[in-house]
UniProtKB/TrEMBL annotation:
Record bears the keyword Disulfide bond: no
Domain spans labelled GH15-like: 3-184
GO BP of this protein: carbohydrate metabolic process
TM spans (from-to): none
Alphabetical keyword list: Plasmid
Annotated signal sequence range: none
Molecular-function GO term, any one: hydrolase activity, hydrolyzing O-glycosyl compounds
Keyword Zinc-finger tagged: no
Any single Pfam family the record assigns to this protein: Glyco_hydro_15
InterPro entries: 6-hairpin_glycosidase_sf, 6hp_glycosidase-like_sf, GH15-like
Top-rank taxon, per record: Bacteria
Protein's name in the database: GH15-like domain-containing protein
Amino acid sequence: MHHLYSKAMCWGALDGALWLEERDLLELDRDKVRSNLDTIRAVVLEHGWNEDRQAYTGALDCEHLDASVLLLPKLGIIEADHPRMVATYERIDAELAKGSFVWRYDPSIDDNSSPEGAFMACSFWAAEYLALAGRRDEAAGRMRKLLGAGNDLRIFSEEYDPEAQIMLGNLPQGLSHAALVHAALALGEKNGDEV
């Protein structure tokens, strides 16, 4: 199984390598890297899209949703306001979210018997996606709700149970904080604010 997030991160790594090469910080075959970038983008956009689900899914030629695909616009693979990306967000919001809190994927597809909470990184990725798509008010509203899930020091855990209003998993969780920072930066940039 080829996961879409893995393909997207390979694209991001090559795009970063090209950025370094353009600044004479790395030597590489520019044409070959660009060709690989085009190939990866084409595979992600063609085989990551599920026509029946009307969404980009967690793996190539798959039907299961995965909230990590909300990072595709941030990586530059597709525009946030592209109709397919908008449909993907709407599908993820409908099936993997409770309010502002987003699960990475449907926990029923796992054999894990322990309950999973909403994944805080994915929840902040959804806010970042909304900011990148120009949906600033929705992004800001989601951020306000998510910020309430931190403790009194605004430290965030890996997961959160929005019904019981308790933190789950690792605390603190660096990925949750990194996702929060990126969402805040995207929200500030789209608003023209300095963050």
